Input
Amino acid sequence: MTEPDNQSLWERIADALDRLAPPGPSVIDLTAADAFVWHAEDGRLEPVTTVNRIGLELLKGIDEQRADLLENTRRFARGLPANNALLWGARGTGKSSLVKAVHAAANAESPGALALIEVHREDTRTLPRLLQILRGCEQRCVLFCDDLSFDDADTSYKSLKALLEGGIEGRPDNVLFYATSNRRHLMPRDMIENERSTAINPAEAVEEKVSLSDRFGLWLGFHVCDQATYFAIVEGYAAHFGLDVPVKQLRAEAHQWSVARGARSGRVAWQFIQDLAGRLG
Output
């Protein structure tokens, strides 16, 4: 072969090897925004310019949970030791709203201190890849997984266990993990009971299943609110958004709305306020 032919052959081989080689670590600018969404399919963090959240002062009936999570987040923002947190309990009680509001409050006190990174439930398997990227960054990051839970055939919880605590590399010092779930142990009760009834050693089988939730150092329980708390949430929203409705009428309409929905919660209160604001124009 002539020299030009050899050159062309080597170039084609090099191009083929480039296509086969795995992509290198992405260069991510965590100062581009306060919040990001992790896209596992292409290893990308997409900046979120406007986060869907409400103010911390509008979250009623969860004062203790709010104080605990805010203090934990403040410590982390200051570079002090802090715990991974599991927010579990009844639906619509403000778990996700609290995480986003606490992040905003911590950043208001220390601008740019924390980046909030949302990880979708189905992408938990890719968390080791995300941590590899974040390990080399100086920015402190709170990973947030909303509505985290696992079913019978799902074994991705095992990799998450190692990620939270126990892996050989360990969780990077600049990363904290917050998760919300309707389940205290992140798994349905019948799944745990089935393990207990069918396993050779029932106690060991149950330990395997519930040990994931034990990896969270901070547990915050959220429970269905009573009527007084529900009215306080509604009145807080109405005052904040300037909805001029007499308190007696406001409570009567809010009560009727909750009866129709068959539930009382912060989410139901917010939906009522949306309807009321629309009717008032």
